[in-house]
């Protein structure tokens, strides 16, 4: 039974990825199917459940900018995939919690390995990653505070009522956007795949545009702006994590949040950096599989798993 459950988790992760119009890694998907005869059978069952669940769901309003997106851009648009019945159906299959803002609690939290989708009345959506928390302002539904962890925002733009995210002492102002915000170890980052976000509109006034990520220590006026492939923004919601010269401490935090498995690093390894890309479902099923994928050593500990880089 545990074996079947791990295969189903992998199948759900592949269902999420292959349902994305921008998906192109068909060779890896084919290799996964051929690795075990049960893979294709369980994947087909998952997709059948998705189709059935999507048909049973009511129509969901598109959370989009005011501008019309040309067909070619729509194909590559993450918003097109996040909106509609597919996410809702996969939410039911994956145990993703769905929550409507009106009448709900003030603080929404997730456990490690859990994801929740928060739907705002105007059609905007917030995908909350594992071990994360947001605080909502009951008097202003266009204001959200990220208290810890990571969240992907798909926002309906309204120039008269801009959407604002507070992250520690920093503020992010939506300019019609899909953007991912992270708060870990007193450092924040915001990465944009569509539209733009203004970082601290009353101070630095930095516009973060698609394909860019801004990082800053909380309480520090300094910041760093770098490039990021737009397809990597919010990819954790599709069951993938990509690390580009990332601190090992951040890698451990991301893996813990996404898989629910406790990953840690020794103090001596905190500032080591690695690069690589992994699917989270296989790592959740077998944490030791992370070793050859990222070129690290994984050893069991009392609380979970330790990551060491060469």
Automatic annotation (TrEMBL):
The chain crosses the membrane at residues 80-99. It holds the Pfam family FecR. This is Iron dicitrate transport regulator FecR. One of its GO terms (molecular function) is sigma factor antagonist activity. Keywords: Membrane, Transmembrane, Transmembrane helix. Residues 107-198 form the FecR protein domain. It comes from the Bacteria. PANTHER family: PERIPLASMIC SIGNAL SENSOR AND SIGMA FACTOR ACTIVATOR FECR-RELATED, PROTEIN FECR.
